[in-house]
Design brief:
334 residues, S-adenosyl-L-methionine, metal-binding, 9 helices, iron-sulfur, TIM Barrel, 27% strand, rSAM_sf, binds iron/sulfur cluster
């Protein structure tokens, strides 16, 4: 039976990694931008793709230890390791999984994405030895399916995750049939997204946005028709929309960061942002907030009425502190 909401996601059952993501509990580990493939629809940004850079959630980081700090900030329940192709940074992946499991326990759920291009038995043995819980293949070429068959001999959950490209519906159906025959645990079908990097090749093929901010026209319909056709099959099928990432994944993760790491004077909002008041004063306001510059204090918005001029700012709670809005208010004026 299909569950869920077509605007967010529809599924017969959810992989464990997706269940934890829905709780906002998955740390997003971007371990390298390097990849041996070059899919025309690749959604990875220009700043990241092809570069050996690391990001913990939205923040660029330099060391593996930074991922632990970020996991603490959000009280993470697990991590999803992505790229590029993480297998090109296998040493880093193995060290990081070991660090995460040592720090947070073996129950800390780790899933990993790969095209399968570089997945050998040796790679799979190393991943199993450090306790990888789930592996998701994006087999962009026919020969990469061999890697999925190899992975099925190991003790982690094996799934396939592919975008729903409207003119490739027959191929998608072929992948579902292959997955059923081989006994993979799940197939995730993502709504195809138009991004800054892929909009030209997708526009050339006639694709335009018509769902949420980035969802490509007819991608959802194609995925949902396949889910309906195969809803009684023996593997977990899951369609994940582009809207999900903004409305559920990022927002719930931000709500966790607010719950576990926001400062006492910051006010959280249901949208997953924080609001603080910035005031100028030569007084010591450390009972109300903290000093952020010479004579400049960040305090709780609830004390705004004590000041004649206040800058109210709303920001994302993660380390980048992306500012969503700011408003100068004069609480004591008429
Ligand atoms: S395999 Fe993934 S990361 Fe690599 S080019 Fe294709 S979509 Fe992008």
């Amino acid at each position: 039976m299909l569950k869920g909401n077509p605007d967010i996601g529809v599924y017969t059952a959810l992989p464990k990694g997706c269940e934890l993501c829905r709780l906002g509990g998955k740390l997003v580990v971007y371990i390298t931008g390097e990849c041996g493939d070059s899919c025309y629809y690749c959604p990875v940004s220009k700043e990241r793709f092809g570069k050996d850079v690391m990001y913990a959630n939205e923040a660029k980081v330099e060391t593996l230890r930074d991922f632990l700090y970020e996991a603490y900030r959000m009280n993470a329940l697990g991590a999803g390791i992505t790229g590029g192709d993480p297998i090109l940074a296998l040493n880093r992946v193995v060290r990081l999984i070991r660090m995460l499991k040592d720090e947070f326990s073996s129950d800390f759920h780790v899933h990993l994405y790969t095209s399968g291009r570089y997945v050998t038995y040796d790679v799979l043995r190393e991943l199993q030895a450090v306790g990888l819980d789930e592996i998701r293949f994006h087999p962009v070429k026919d020969e990469y399916f061999k890697a999925i068959e190899k992975a099925l001999n190991f003790n982690f959950d094996v799934g396939i995750e592919i975008p729903s490209i409207p003119h490739e519906k027959d191929y998608l159906e072929k992948v579902i049939k292959w997955g059923i025959e081989k006994g993979v645990k799940f197939i995730n079908i993502n709504e195809l997204e138009l991004t800054e990097r892929n909009f030209q090749p997708l526009n050339v093929q006639g694709y335009k946005v018509n769902h949420g901010l980035t969802g490509v026209k007819e991608s959802a319909e194609v995925a949902l028709s396949l889910l309906r056709k195969y809803e009684t099959c023996n593997l977990a099928l899951h369609y994940c929309s582009s809207v999900y990432k903004d409305v559920v994944e990022t927002r719930t993760r931000f709500l966790r960061i607010i719950k576990y790491s926001s400062k006492p004077y910051e006010q959280g909002t249901p949208e997953g942002t924080v609001v603080r008041a910035i005031v100028r004063s030569n007084m010591d306001l450390s009972d109300y907030g903290e000093k952020i510059g010479e004579g400049v204090w960040a305090i709780s918005p609830e004390f705004s009425n004590l000041f004649s001029e206040v800058l109210l700012v709303e920001e994302h709670p993660d380390q980048r502190r992306l500012r969503i809005s700011e408003k100068l208010v004069y609480p004591k004026s008429e």
